[in-house]
What does this fold into?
Amino acid sequence: MRLDTDPYLERYAARVQGMSASEIRALFSVASRPEIVSFAGGMPNTASLDMEAVEAVAAALVREEGALALQYGGGQGRPELRELLVDIMRHEGVPAHADDLVVTVGGQQALELIAKCFVDPGDIVIAEGPTYVGGIGALSSHQADVRHVPMDDDGMRVDLLEEMLARLAGEGRRPKYVYTVPNHQNPAGVSLSVERRHRLAELAEVHDLLILEDNPYGLLDFDGRTWPSLRELVPERVIYVGTMSKTFAPGVRTGWVAAPPPVRDKLVLLREAADLCPANLTQMLVERWLTTQPWQEQVKRFRSVYHERAEVMLRALEAEMPAGVEWTVPSGGFYVWLTVPAGIDTSDLLAKAINHRVAYVPGRGFYGDGSGGDKMRLCFSYPPVERIHEGIVRLGELLHAELELVQAVYGDDIPDMRRRGPDEPGTQLGG
Amino acid sequence: MRLDTDPYLERYAARVQGMSASEIRALFSVASRPEIVSFAGGMPNTASLDMEAVEAVAAALVREEGALALQYGGGQGRPELRELLVDIMRHEGVPAHADDLVVTVGGQQALELIAKCFVDPGDIVIAEGPTYVGGIGALSSHQADVRHVPMDDDGMRVDLLEEMLARLAGEGRRPKYVYTVPNHQNPAGVSLSVERRHRLAELAEVHDLLILEDNPYGLLDFDGRTWPSLRELVPERVIYVGTMSKTFAPGVRTGWVAAPPPVRDKLVLLREAADLCPANLTQMLVERWLTTQPWQEQVKRFRSVYHERAEVMLRALEAEMPAGVEWTVPSGGFYVWLTVPAGIDTSDLLAKAINHRVAYVPGRGFYGDGSGGDKMRLCFSYPPVERIHEGIVRLGELLHAELELVQAVYGDDIPDMRRRGPDEPGTQLGG
It folds into this structure.
């Protein structure tokens, strides 16, 4: 199976490159060609789903409850589904009650509704740097002032968050919330250490912080480990977002948010204004998937599919990358976050890469402040195993050639390509 | 088939009554009882769908294209679906190109994204009075100043719109757009006359107006007639919203907006921030429905189902209503809009009505300015035929009793119950 276009690359390219729609289309008429290996789209490997089981579930649903499945539903989402989502959260030790949940159109709608609920133009929201591009999108559409806290291999540098909070307090300012993807973060591929989770929870108490905990990848640890959730540590200070997109399928567009009752009520009203209600059809499909199929076995299968792909990518990177290139080593999720040596700008390099039949997402898409020019995100979840190696070989060739060019042009006086935009401390991750 | 709750009544009740969530739940634990005839929810009769055909379509989709159907898609919606939606528009003579379309989560998301695109707090948007409650919801969530133009049996009083525009121009103000549901309007059940459509198009030219044409019910004229669309008359001034909710099923949450390219591009960006993309699964289900099934025959079946129900309701109203009660006579769509005599407040009456085993939506939900206290919306699309008569009998008994009470309490000095809120000219429709 092949997608006609790669929607992820499309929207990232629009952010990163400032390209026009027609330029993007031209790029994609090229990038979607089968000869190109795309590490761009953060797409689950839906081909690994037990499709016969999905077919049986869909057919039985329409046959047995069609009139209800095809009708309008309530804005909060079906109580039956919310009970099942609470069970999923319990698998990671995340406490919640079905009443606290609002079913959303993927995790993305949750991020958007929360931004709409809390953010007025100019309000500060703190996020990891880099962070999920859709999180930036939701915040930008409400004109938030996004401040990034650098990351390292143990996730967000909570010590630097503490400094930032002190600095803001000195200016008489407070963030509306701290947005974090603590598990197998997109795009950095790292997780927040247990120590830092506890410290973040303490900071939330001390600074009266609201935390937005976004957890799409928590069940996709390669070894099946789980981490203590922030909601577990300081439940009353955390709004939690989950999704079925990575443990089942993004095509059902089913996510959820768990929030304290006053926030939950506001989110239901905003969601009704936004699109009335989640689709009964897809909600009920998820319910039947969770109640009639061995969904945990499917999650294990996904884990093993992604683990294998990650190993292949990491081995290829070791073998193919020129000196000076660095990358994170994921223990779950979909992503490797790669840093190129000085002199290379990953946004500028993308067209050449596609010409060399390999695609990635340039790092700038994951920052609200123009930094990340020396980074790229490589997604290993989607391409077939044999193509992952080939793609990394191509990327290695490209970077070798590009570094020779940089050396020839600049010698030892290499310009700093990492940032376009306001002058702020850059990310420390991988570089 | 019976719904567990009536989501429409729920959200209208919240708007109209200012009730708390727990009060609403208590009301609905009563209102959802099978002995109550609900004319409240604006729900299509999904039980009239050919469910075997839907089942076959859903099963074949997962079997043949499951991996794609369960994957992420592009923010604008699938090109294949957009081509088919253009065909549907052509059935009503509405011109469009697939490139101009953005697929949305029902028509509601289109209304929300358009409001987000155009409305800053305090901006004026003109709408019919009464108007679709979800339209008010989308506008209110962006703090629009909604101004209502009264209606009569020929739809919006375009002469009064002209006066309003002149008045606003005198104040140096312009509306961001005019929101209209020209065909079988929700809740008024009337359509904009051909003459007024042409006059509205002229006004749009003269006053440089943008029109938001929302057309959920255009194909549900009982006699299969269509009306000239505003997009046909002044294409460059009209943003058009359509939906599959009434011609197929709301459960697929598939609507669309047709807009000029600069607006379309903005809407795609906003939609990606809102929820990334429409569900491939439901989009592809709609595509297969439209290409492999006789969807126009299904629309004819819906028309005849709704026509029969409308006739039953209108006959029952003639027989059962006390003198002084008036109502509109729909030629399509789902709704009858009813006006009660002075002294009765339909918001206050709702609890008594539910106690008398009949439910409706109080008129105030359809105005942004507190008017409509003497109105109610009766939806005939959903209840079984035999129950429609019974429900109107109960409503007649209730209104007879209530009018006797009013007469006994007030005599000839009956207070005006129509309005709660700012003092503005009330609707003329039905009164």
